[in-house]
Amino acid sequence: MPRGRYSLHDPHDHTPLGEEHFHCAPGPSGWRYVSQRTTPSGTPAGSVDLALDDRGRPIRLELHAGDWQVRAAALNGVTWVRTDPTGTHATEDNAPAHAFTGTSPAFLIATARLLRLTPASPATRVRLVAFTDPVLAPRTLDQSWALLKSEAHATDNGPLIVDEYQVTALDTGEQHPVHITGDVVLSAPGIELEHLETPPSTFA
Questions:
Q1: Is residue 167 within 8 Å of 144, Cβ to Cβ?
Q2: Which terminus has fewer CB within 10 Å in the chain: N or C?
């Protein structure tokens, strides 16, 4: 069960946004990721609880940011309920999308699991609903993912396979690399892996 810590920063001006302390693990029915987020000063800032089925589809997502909350799942496309800080209003919505995304590294792992690309695969388009900080506002976006290469890197625990993806935002054409090994993000825009207590899990 990988357990560790990511640092988060603004991908454009590198302003520190805080840290995400996580643990994750594959199971008989899929994969689960749980994390607690903190501000740069160390105060609690929210949480992520994401469960995928064995095909990479989100069967349960719960996000907290400040006093906002989202509960979501893949249902008739994707469906979510967003609750305001007072807890008196909850709005339900739905979109013809494949999965969810946001600032958590969990969503990069989830999208990679959903697409299951190989270096021979063509670039694949995916529609996602992003929940944007700090109020978890939903926004539908389209991305293109391509797996550029998979390379083995020697470690004390044996070879580590690192996948390098190229992700393209289809509304702007902006491209960026994402490096993933198993169920851990090594680096991506706005994300750096700072500490890892146990090796990444490998998916069957």
A1: yes
A2: C
Helix (H) or strand (E) run with residue 162 in it = strand 160-169
The span from the CA of 24 to the CA of 16, in Å, is: 24
Q: Count of CB atoms within 10 A of residue 113's CB?
A: 21
Residues 78-131: pLDDT tens digits?
999 999 888 888 999 999 999 999 999 999 999 999 999 999 999 999 999 999
* Residue 204 confidence (pLDDT): 64
Q: Dihedral sign for Cα 50, 59, 99, 197, please.
A: positive
Structure tokens at 74: 């893949």
61: region left, alpha or beta (phi > 0 left; psi from -120 to 50 alpha): beta
Query: By C-alpha distance, which of 15, 8, 11, 13 is closest to 38?
Result: 8
Distance CA 171, CA 128 (A): 13
pTM: 0.94
Question: Considering only CA atoms, which of 183, 44, 175, 199 is closest in space to residue 105?
Answer: 183
